[in-house]
Amino acid sequence: MTRRAAILALCLLTVLGLFGLQSWDVAVGRVERRAVAAIEEKTGFVVGTIERAEIAFLPLPRISLSQVGFSQRDGALAGKAARIRAHLRLLPLLSGRISFDRIDLVAPQIDVAVPAGSGVAEWLAPPLAELERLRSQSKIVVQGGSLFLRAGSAIQSVVRDLNLVIDERSLNEPLDLSGSLTWRGVPTEVGLRWPMIGGSAKAALSATSPLLKLRFDGTRSGPGEPVINGLLALSTPSVPQLLGWFGEDSRLAAALGALTLSAELQLKPHEASFNNAVASLDGERLDGVLNLTESNGRFALAGTLAGATLDFGRLIDRLPIAAVDAADTSPFDLDGWTGREIDLRISVDAARLHGARLNDVATYLLIRKGRFETGLLRAATYGGSVKTRLLAVNAPAGVDVKLQAGFEKVNLAQAAGDLPQLARLSGTGSFQLALDGAGRNFDELLGSFAGRANLSLRQGELAGVAFAELMRRAERTPSQALRDWRQGKTPFESLNVNASVGGGLFALNEAQMNGQNYRFSLAGTASLRSRILDMTASLASANGSLKLPFVLKGPVSAPFFELETEAFLSPVGGSALPALLTR
C-alpha cells in the first residue's frame, strides 16, 4: 500500500469511527424528526405527512423523504412532493448535528392561494413574504415540478416543467433564483434577485422566452410598501401575442407588432412609471414617458411620445375593424374597445396614412369605460392642413357616434401622387364633414346619421370627362358634340358642393362646377345603407342658351353616368335637336 492510500484509508476509518460514536436510531424515527425540523427551519415549509424516510452515508450523506406533504405557515402555499432529498453537511454530521447543504424537491405539485382576478405580482407576493421571514435558507432545488395558482377551488393558472434553483442565503442576504418553467405552453428561462431587508438594496429580474426578452436591474427600497427603481429593457416579436400570454385580450393591442422598449422604471404598488422611455414599433422610434396604473382591477395607461416617423396606416390596418355594412346586423360592442383606460398623445415629424404623407402630426387616443375618442389634433399635408375627430359613447340607443373631418388649402394634384383615388380631381381648396348618429348596429347608425358636408376647390381639373370640349362642340357643330366626351379633362375655375345627411340619405343641396364656357350642376341623393346613387346633372353654356341633361345612377363603386337624350333640352329655336341626337 502506498503512503497516499494509507493516509486516505486512515481518514476514512476516522470518519467511520466518529459516525459510530453517534446514535443513528433510524428505526425509531429520531433522524427523521430531526431532519424534518431542520428542513422546516431552512425552507419555511411545515411538513405534514411522510410515507417513508431513508438515510444514506455513501457516496455522500443524505436523507430522503418519500411522498411528503408540506405547506407554508401562513397557508399561502401547500403541496406534495414525490421525494425530498436533503444533502447533509459532513462536518456538522461528525458532531451529531444535522445541517443541510442542499434540499431537492423532486416532482412537487405546489398549490398557491391567490386572490381572484389578480396578476403575477399578487401571485408572487405571499411566497416571497414567507421566505423573507426566514433568518437563513438552504439551497433549494425544484426538479420537474408543477405549480397550481388557485383562487378558492378555481385554478387561475398552471406552471409546468418547473426546474428552479434557489441559492443558499444567510441573514439579510438577497434571494437568488434561476431556472426554467413552462407557462401557458411557452418555455421560459427566468432569473430573480430579490432583497430580503429594508432600506435600499439591489434587485434584478430576467426572463427569456420565444415571446419575451426582459431584463431589469435596479434597487428596491422599503420597508412597508416598496418602491423599485432601475433600468428596464424589453422586447417582443408580437405585442398581441405577449399580452395574450399574460391573459390580456386587447383589441387595440392588435395594432402593434414587434416592440422593443427601454426605460427608467419606477414601480410602486398599483403604479409603474416609464421615464425616458424609448419604444421601437416595427423599427420606428418613439421617445417619451408612460405611466401604467391599476385601480380596482382596472388598468389605465397614460403617456406622451414623440418621434421622427410613424406609419398610422399600418397600425389601423391591423385593427379588427368591421367594414361599414348595413347588412351586418350584429350589435356594436364598444365595451370590447374600452376595457382599459388610455390617455395617449403621439407627435411625429412625418407620418403615413394609407399612402397619404403627413407632416408635423399631433394625434391622440382617449379611452374611458364606454367612451372611445381619437383624432388628429393637427397635421400639415400637401400645402395645407387636416384635422379629424371620432367619438363613440355608449348610449340608450346603442352607440352614439360623432365624426368630424376636414382639410384646408390642400393641393389635390400633389396628393394624387400618393393617393391614386384622387387622380381624377385636382385643385386647391377645403373640405368639411360633420356627422352625428346613434344605433345598435350599422343599419340603425346609418339610418340615424345627420350632418353636413362641404367641398370647395379652385383652379383645378376633373379627369375622365371633357365638358368644356363637349359644350364647344354642341354650340358650334352639334353633330360632333357627343363624340369622345368621356376622354380628356375638364378644367374648372371653381367647384362647390354643399350636402346634408339625414334619414339615411346623402342629399346634394348644391353642387356646381364652373369653367370658362360652361356650368355643370349636380343634384340628387345617395343611400348610405345601399350606397346607391340617384342623381341628375345639367351641363349648360355660360349664357344659358344650351343645356345638356345627364343621369347618374347605380352603385357608388360603379355608377352609370350618361347623357339623358330623351329629356334633352335643345337650344333656342330647336334647330340643333336632331343633330345632337345623332351619334
Produce a short descriptive summary.
The chain is α+β, with helices and mostly antiparallel strands and 583 residues long. Helix content is 16%, strand content 54%.
Give a description of the structure.
The protein has 583 residues and is α+β, with helices and mostly antiparallel strands. It folds into three domains: 22-113 and 136-158; 237-448, no CATH class; 464-580, no CATH class. 16% of the residues lie in helices and 54% in strands. It contains ten helices and 29 strands. The protein has helices at residues 3-21, 30-43, 90-94, 120-132, 239-245, 312-318, 412-416, 442-448, 467-476, 577-580, and strands at 45-49, 52-56, 62-72, 77-88, 100-113, 139-151, 154-166, 175-183, 186-194, 201-209, 212-221, 227-236, 259-268, 271-281, 284-295, 298-311, 341-353, 356-368, 371-381, 384-395, 398-411, 428-439, 450-463, 489-502, 505-514, 518-527, 532-541, 547-555, 560-563. It has a 29-stranded mixed β-sheet that branches. A hairpin with a 2-residue loop joins strand 24 and strand 25. It is elongated, with a radius of gyration of 38 Å. It starts with a helix and ends with a helix. Mean pLDDT is 84; it is low at 12-28 and 567-583.
